[in-house]
Amino acid sequence: GISLWLPQQQRFVEFAGSAHLLSAEGGLWLADPASGERRLLHPIDAGLTGFWRGEALAQLPGTELLVLLENWSTRGLGELRLTLLSADGEQRLYRESLAKDCLCSDLHIEPGPNGHFAISFYDNDHYRLLHYRLISHR
Questions:
Q1: Which residue ranges in the chain fall short of pLDDT 50?
Q2: What pLDDT score was predicted for residue 119?
Q3: Predicted local distance difference test score (pLDDT) of residue 138
Q4: Which residues, 6+ apart, have CB-to-CB distance to 130 below 8 Å?
Q5: Closest C-alpha to 119, from 102, 104, 136
Q6: Separation CA 70–CA 98 (nearest Å)
C-alpha cells in the first residue's frame, strides 16, 4: 500500500486493500498513530474484472488538497486515473482518466509551489509527463 503523513492533523492517509472475484475489502484509510484508531474514508472501488489500487499519493504544499493516482488492477490492459481529495481525504473533489488500455507503471507525483504539480508514469512503451496548475477562484 501507500501512505502519506499529514503533519497538520498528525495522522496518516493510507491505501490498503485487496479484491477477489466476489469480495473487496479495505480502501483509503485515515490512521491516528497516537490512538491507534483507523477509519475507512473510501472503500475500495471494485468490479468483476478488477479494482482501483492506490499507487501514489501526495499533498500539495500551501493547499488543502491531496493528489491520488489509481491504477485499474486487472489481467491485461488497465486504466490510470487522477483523483483530487480534500486534505483530510474525506471528499473527492475531482477525478480524471489519464490513460486507458494501458499497462501503466512507475507512477510519480511531484508537488510544486503555487498549485503546480507534475505526474509521470510509464505507459506501454513510453514515459508520459503531465503538468497541472490549480488556480483558486476565491
A1: none
A2: 96
A3: 66
A4: 98, 118, 119, 120
A5: 104
A6: 10
CA dihedral 101, 90, 112, 133 (to 10 degrees): 70
Q: Could you tell me the CA-to-CA distances from 135 to 5, 77, 93, 95 in Å, in that order?
A: 24, 34, 14, 16
Fill in the amino acid letter for 111.
P
Tracing cell 487522477 back to the chain, one arrives at: 82
**Residues 51 and 43: beta-carbon distance below 8 Å:** no
Question: For the chain, what is the largest distance between any 2 Cα atoms, rounded to a whole number of angstroms?
Answer: 45
Say what the alpha-carbon torsion angle 92, 106, 8, 85 is, to the nearest 10 degrees: -10
Answer for the pair 99, 92: CB distance below 8 angstroms, yes or no. Answer: no
pLDDT score recorded for residue 74: 83
Predicted pLDDT of residue 2: 87
DSSP per-residue letters across 88-132: TS--EEEEEEEEEEE-EEEEEEEE-STTEEEEEEEETTEEEEEEE
Residue 53: C-alpha distances to residues 25, 59, 81, 84 (Å): 12, 18, 10, 15
Q: Which amino acid is at 86?
A: S
At 58, the amino acid letter reads A
